[in-house]
Structure formats: C-alpha cells, structure tokens
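Q&A FORM
Asked by: J.P.
Topic: structure of Acylglycerol kinase, mitochondrial

PROVIDED:
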Amino acid sequence: MAKVLAALRNHWKKSTFGACLLGWGGHWLYGKHCDNLLRRAACQEAQAFGNQLIPATEPLKKATVFLNPAACKGKAGNLFEKNAAPILHLSGLDVTVVKTDYEGQAKKLLELMENTDLIIIAGGDGTVQELHANVNLLSSCVQAAFSKIPIGFIPLGKTCTLSHTLYPESTNQVQHITNATLAILKGETVPLDVLQIKGEKEQPVFAVSGLRWGSYRDAGVKVSKYWYLGPLKTKAAHFFSTFKEWPQKHQAALMYLGPTERPPEEPEEKPSRPPLYVRLYRRLRSYWSSPKEFPQEVAPEDWEELKLSTIELSIATRNRQLDLTRTEDFMDICIEAESVSKGEFVHRGSQKMRDPHTCPEGSQCIQASRCILQLPEGTEGSFGIDNEEYEAMPVEVKLLPRKLRFFCDPRMREQMLQAAVQ
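REPLIED BY: S.T.
REPLY: Here is the structure written out as tokens.
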C-alpha cells in the first residue's frame, strides 16, 4: 500500500489525469444506466396499452410515422430507434415508418393518408413544415382529411418549438422523447393554430410557431459560427453584428385585419342521416315555400394600414400561450422599437435565443387574423419561419385557427385548463 501511495505521489500529474478520466467515465456510465432505466419504465408503461383487449372485429390502429433521419445532425434515426420505436411497437399500434429524405413524398403521403388513424412526426420544426408543404400539393379532400387526423410530435431535431407547448420541460433528452411518445398513447389532444404564409409566386409555407424578420434573427443564425467561444458564443454573435450600420432599421408597410370571433366547435360525431320520407318532405317543403330574400351585401373588410421601422418584426401564433377557452382567434404581431442601445441589443439577443417570439417592453403589439407585409423594392435579408430560412419578400399571412390537433401530455392540458379558470 505504501508503494502505491508513493508511486501516486511521485507521478502526481498522471495520477490526477487518471482520476479525472476515471471520474468522467463513471459519470458517463451512470448516465447511460439512468437512460436505460427510463427506457425500461417507458416500455413497461407502453406494454400496459398493448395488453388491452380489443374486439375481434375491430382492426388495429394504424400509425404513420414521418421520420427525418437528417434531424439533430443525422442522429434522429438512431434516437428514434432506441427511444421511441420500442414504445410504439409495444403499445399494439400497426406502425409504418416513412423517411422524408427522398423524392415523391407527396405521392406516398396520398397513398397512406386514406388508411391511417394517427400521424406521428419524428424530427424538428423543419419536419413539421415539410409535411405541411407536401399536404398542400395534394387535393383539397386529402387536405381536409389530414386536418382531422390527430398528430403526434416526437422531438428529435435541434429546434423543437412545439415541444414547449405539448410536453413538460426536461433536460434529459431520453426522458423528453419517451414522455412525448407515451403522450401519444394516452390520447389527450389540443387544437393548434397554423399560419399560412404566401408570397406573390411561391407555394404557401405553413408555420405553427411564426415568422421573424430582423436583426436578432440574423444574429442568432450566426451563433454556431462562434462555437469556439463556448458559452460566450451567443453574446459574441450579437456583439459583432453591432459593428454594422447602427441603428439597424427594417422598414415595411403592414396592412392587417383584427381578431375574428371563434365559432363553436363542431361535434366529433356527425348526426345520423334522417329517413327517406323525412328527406323527401324537406325537399318538397323547400320547393313550394316562398322564394328566399337575396342576402344583403357583405360589408367590405376593415383593413388597418401602418408604416413601420423596426429592429425586428415577429408574427406568431398563440400556441406558446395556448388558451383553450378564449373566444377570439388572432395572431400576435410584435413591432420592436428601433431605438435600442448596443449593450441592450446584446443582452436581449441572449433572451431571444431562449424564447424567439418574446415581445419586449416598449414594443408595439397588434392582434390580427390576417395581414399583408409589403417590403421596399430591393430589400435583402431573410425571414425565419419556424426556424427555417426563407428569402425576404412581400407576403400575406393568414391565420388558420385550430387547424390541427396534436397529442399532448395530460399534465400540460390540465395546466392549460387551470390557467384559463384562474
């Protein structure tokens, strides 16, 4: 024992390095062990769903998974196979996996849409956008069918904005993925709004989070460029962006319509068709009844117009602050003041990396159901639409309220209802 202690003392540098390496290895192995325990617990919970008896005449529920293997820098496929796929198969679902890295996806989607009970999107914000783009190429009847199918979202991408609304926060990636997969099996859903963003010639782009245009977005895109600065990379990206012309102004013209009243929800089950004699009676009564008066002319829409000069403009859905009991449908337009100091710009930029659509104090906030953004000729730069980059151009943004139903964790739904009551 004395010789071992003497050797460690004489070679203290190697001993220190070995101790650090051993400590790191132990921590890594313990983390792997905890991840396996999480997977086992999730699989046991899913097995309870798979063991439930179903009538012999009732077919298995069919789930179509749209997996983007390129998400999370190419790690999404492995994350799905290790954490989500076993849970889905143990639950008794008939699972079909469609990878979204090949051509002809719209045709494949058309073939599967008629014969699926639920859709699961495994990826990030870009995968959600891609699926919407493919659906938009299909016929109107298929689009209507798509909007009625419940959708599950398994967060595998680098940016997963939807996960903040649908699932509890978790710093453990394995726990976050397994919680999201189990939420699909539990069956609780919430309606989410969608933004339809259409340029003059382009096909519409759909967003469940929103659109950003301005200096904070431009600086945020360059954060990964300063990876070598570690935790200071966010502040560095915003600091170096202040070396450009200051203050940074983005000028445009905005036309918008106010909020619309929310119609009552349609019943999930359609009423049964009345008997033949009732239908004949109704048709004869409508034929012999007096002619109906012509409807009055619809009043023209009351558009508001605004000239703006801002450091950043954002148009966002209310999905992040979901209120299941509100009586009006609208999107939030945030026009931030251009008079921002460089120090405040760097500080606020770090906050916007955590919550991109936050509207700081002193900004002009507008609630609208539809808007038209006109940009000056020769405007350069890019939009950020659900964290995907698009060329800046004049666009019309239309709110599609409660367009899709997403599976969510029952705890999150309960929190939403409690917040609405308070």
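FOLLOW-UP: The first strand starts at residue 62 and ends at 67.
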